[in-house]
Every structure is written in structure tokens, then in C-alpha cells.
């Protein structure tokens, strides 16, 4: 109850403070009247003097500078009048009467910057626009007269007017809109109350929104009438004076449509005008309900506390339950971890025992192999016994291979397989692998091809790494490819990939940062983290070598490619890969290959082929240290007249060099043609042997024309060249080697070769496959 009363008093205080804030404008009006009176000095005023000299300019300045002022007027005793006002569009207009006591007034537009009148004058009827009461009251009062009047605009808005006499010769009147007062009171918070404001004469300023009631003010007396419950009759609630008694505001109670209301009323002064306000409050609402229903409010409060308690208990219950579950999971995790560690220990013990047993078995198999060799030497008189011994030795070798594979797996699992690095020639290793497996491919009708690609292997052939394990990887993949390719070809490709040293430096820096942070927390003073940078510097000579083993078999299904590297797993189908060991092997090959590749800092995978292309392409990478060999110059005649052809060439051939290929195998043709053209050698593929002689004649004509323009060429060389090339070609047909290299014994051909090998690197090479010769 005290809170409601306090809110009511605060609202009343806000109303009275707002009314005091709206001070009357009599000070501005008095000052303006005195200024004009002193300027006129009692002289007779004509309309020209009013408009042009003193009155109108002063009125315009006052209208433009005084806040909230909407109208300012001068009315003389002689009937002359001049006034400025603002209309609804904030346009300034002037109303004037230029003849004495005329019934016609005129209105014109005003320049808002200079106050000069312009436009056409509009005639107004003055009979309904002038009120003589305020004029007479202003003349009779020296302190000014305050009233609520009408404006000059078309809507005749209500204005609070302050009128002051000007030495008895006229009246200066200023006014501001009632809407300004309404806006000030509308901004107040009445805490749910209904506010009504009217002058003591009954002119309403702020209309109350009190439902089903009507408030009337007359001479400081408030009359409140309300409708009955049936709505048919209206009765008076109160008719009392609002004059404060001993400084106390008047308050009373009443009922409107059966609802209780409390009313407060008092007198205030708004801009000098005496007014009465009424403030009504409904006695319902939350405060009244609490007052009238104490038991209900207490019950609601108890219910709220019980709800909070229940929610807290539920929270504690679920928290304890979650803690128990977490403890249970932690215990289960510890138990599982112990079981895992125990299983790992058992597995390690089992692996070590298995490896020891494998070593013993391998020793026994080696002894059996030696004994078989001794028996085979004594079995010559008995061919059947010798054949059986050969079969036994083959089976013994197979068992030894399987045992070695198992032993390798055991070493990898135990982490005891190390790389035995040595310097070796990678190009020669690739050629050796292809040479070893080439006969196996020929037996099955499969061509085995070494593709040098961009020749980068020949340029960086001297490397340092584990030659044996790299060879083991290549043999495993190549034998698998040959074994399960029925026709077509198997090719080995090798390239040197450019390394991104930025990644290694970034990785080294990342390790450096993490180690620095650990040093800060562990308070160590050493700088072992710099080892990462030193290792990065030492690895600058390491290069990434990429190898591909591509075949034209049936391929591996995509859904089985992920499992081919698992140990003891075979794809039981006619597809490619480790699963191609349909009736042979134990499923360890590719698993060992993958482990060795990763041991050499590489990765292995299957490359997707184009749609419709047969076979499988295995691609793997290894990291090898590149060794920088000392530069050596090999004489051209040595490489031509003797020795095997290699991937590297000592001198780049001239653009006029020519190679004629008469061989089988589309892949071999493609590889040779691509590689030789990359060395700036022109390559011609011949489909029929009879076309070789005709092609040599064309080449001879071109060379004759070229050599005729050169003074360094002996004339006898061109004459003997075609015959010797032809004979060399036929010789090559029987020896299955490069034509023109080992064929012919004529001294003129040897002289020609030697002369040209020293002067230029131009040559013509005819390659004929022995099966086509």
C-alpha cells in the first residue's frame, strides 16, 4: 500500500514540476513592448511605420528567435494591426489591417529569412477572429494578461497567449501552441493513472481516457459522472473543490462500473493560466490482489521455493549419476589399458619366439639344400632320381622364400629392420631388374619395358640408399605384374620429383616452437631444439624418386584395393594385385612392400586409370640421397663400338641424327620414340622391312646435300655410307641389337664413324628386332 501511495505522489510531483517548467512568456513580451515604446517615443504610428520601420521587423526577429513561439501580434488603439504566425507546414505568414477599424484583414506570405511580405494578399473576415476581452484586459494590466485563445491560422489552433500593453497605444501579444503543453505531459509516467487537465473556466487542455466516466471542471470545482452497471443511467461520483486545504491536495474515492478508483486533484498554473488537474487510479492490479489475497500470495511464494528445491535436487542427482558413470568408464578404461598392455607383451614375446624358431628352421632348410646339391652330384646315372632331387630343391627354395617373408614381417613388427645404405647407380639397378624379368615376360608373351620418362634418372643416377630393399620392392611388384598379365606389356617408369624444401623448413620451425614452449615450462637451459634445423640442412641432398609399375592385366576392384596391403589377405578373384596369387603365395608380398616403402620415407598406392584402360598401376616413392659424381668425359666411339647402351648420353646429338625402328610392341615403340625425341633425335617407325632401304636413301640424299656445303667432310664418306648402313641393318637383324653399332668391318665405315664422332655427334641408327629379321 505504501508503495502505491509513493508512486501516486511521485506522479503528482512530476505534474507540478512540469507546470512550473512551462513559464509564461510575459518577460519576453514586456521586454519587447518596452523596446518598441522607447523606439517610437510616443509618435503617431502609421501602417507604413508599423510594416517597414520598427514594429514588423522586431516582431519577425522575436518569432524567429523565441523557442516554441508560433504567433506574435501588434494591435493598436487606432485599429491598425500587424501579426506574424507559423502555419501547419512551418510556413511563415503575415496578417495585417492597414486601415483603421476595418472589417477586412489581409494575409500574405513572408520570406522566412528577411521577413519581407510577398505574393498576393488574401482578404480575411476579422469579425470571427478578434476577441476584445484579452485586448481590454491587456490594456488595463501593467503586468500582462494570460489567456487561452485562438490562432490566426485556418484551423484556429488553441494558443497560450501573453498580452502586454505598449504605453497605452497598443498591445503586444505572443503565443505558443497548446500542443506543446500536451507533449510535455504525455512524456510523464503516471504509473497506470488517468490524467485530465483543464483551465478553471472549463477549457480542456488534456482530455482524460478514464473509461465510462466524464470529468468537467468549472471554477476550480471538479464534477465526475460515471455510467451505472447497466449502462442506462449516469450518476455523479463527486463534485468537490480542488483548492488545496492547508497545502494538502484533495483526494477522494469513487466507483465506476463497480470498480474502485482513487482521485487526486489540485490547481496549477500553466503559462500563467490557472488550471485544474485530475489524476485517477484504479484500485485493482497486482498490489491490490496481493493485499486482498495474502494466503494466495503466500502459497505462490511457497510453491516457488519448492520448485527451486526440487530443481536443485534433480540437478544434484544427475550430477552424482554422471560422476559415477565417469568413474565407471575410467575404471573400465584402466582395465582395458592393462589388458591391452598385457596382450602387447604376450604378442612381443610370441613374435620373438617366432623369429627365433624361424631362424632355426631356415638353418635346417639351408642344410637340406646343401645335402640336395651333394646328392644331385651323385645322381647322374639315375635321371629320375636327379629330376626328383631338382623338384625337392625347388620346393625347398619356395619354403625358404616363404620363411624369409615371414621373417621380414617379424623384423618389421619388432622394429628391427634397418636400412643398409650404400652408393649405387639407380639407372643400372632399373636395367638389371628389367633384364632379369624380361625372359619371364617373353615366355608369357608379355613385353617388359623400361620407360625413362623425362630422363631425370639418367641425370641423377648415382644415389645413396638401401639398394637391396629397393630391388626387392621392384622385383616383387614386377613379378606380380608379369605373373597375372596374359598379354600386352608391363612397364617400369621412374622420375625424380622436385622437393618442396619450404615444407621441411616449416615442419622444422613447428618442432622448434613446440620445443621452445616445453623448455619454458620445464626450465631447461640447453638448446637441443636446434637439431631439427641441422637435420633439415643435412637432408637438402635428399630427393624424392617416384616409380610406377604398370601392367595391362585385369585390374583390382576398387572395393578391394584398401585390403591388398594387409598381411595374409588375398583377393580371391581373377583380379590384379596381391590377390592375384590365386593358388600361390601366402599373402605377404605387398604387406612387406608397403612396410619397406614407408621405412624409406615413402608411400605406395594404386593410380586410377582412364575409363576403358586395362590393368593396374602401382606407384610408390622413396627418399634417396643424391651423390654428386665427378664429371667424366667418355669418348663417343667407345660407347658406339663397345659397351651397353645406358640411359645417360655424354653428348647431346645434333638435330640431324636419325633412328629407324623396326621392332614389335606398341609400348616399346612409344617409349623409345618419346625418349629419343626428348634427346633431339628424329625417330622413324617402320612397319615393313622393305621400307628401310628406301628410307635410308632419302636420309642419304639429305646428308649428301648437307655435307656438300661443309668443307670439313671427306668426299669418300658419303659414297660408302648407304651400303654400309644397309649391311649393318642386315647384321642387326641376326644379332637382335642396335643396327650399325656392331655390324660391318669395312675400314671406310670405321674411318667415317671416327671422323664424325670427333667433329660432330650426328649419327644414323637402325634398330631391327631379331624376330623380324
From TrEMBL:
Coiled coil ranges (UniProt) are none
Which keywords annotate this record?
Membrane, Phosphoprotein, Transmembrane, Transmembrane helix
Q: Where are the transmembrane segments?
A: 300-320
Gene3D superfamilies from the xrefs? 1.10.287.130, Histidine kinase-like ATPase, C-terminal domain (3.30.565.10)
Q: Which InterPro entries match?
A: 2C_system_His_kinase (IPR050956), HATPase_C_sf (IPR036890), HATPase_dom (IPR003594), His_kinase_dom (IPR005467), HisK_dim/P_dom (IPR003661), HisK_dim/P_sf (IPR036097), Sig_transdc_His_kin-like_C (IPR004358)
Residue ranges of the Histidine kinase domain?
356-626
Looking up CDD domains in the UniProt record yields: HisKA (cd00082)
Give the EC class as a word. Answer: transferase
Q: Which SUPFAM superfamilies match?
A: ATPase domain of HSP90 chaperone/DNA topoisomerase II/histidine kinase (SSF55874), Homodimeric domain of signal transducing histidine kinase (SSF47384)
UniProt keyword Membrane, yes or no = yes
Q: Where is the composition biased (Low complexity)?
A: 710-732
For this protein, what is the EC number?
2.7.13.3
Could you tell me what this protein is called? histidine kinase
**Which species expresses this protein natively?**
Gossypium raimondii
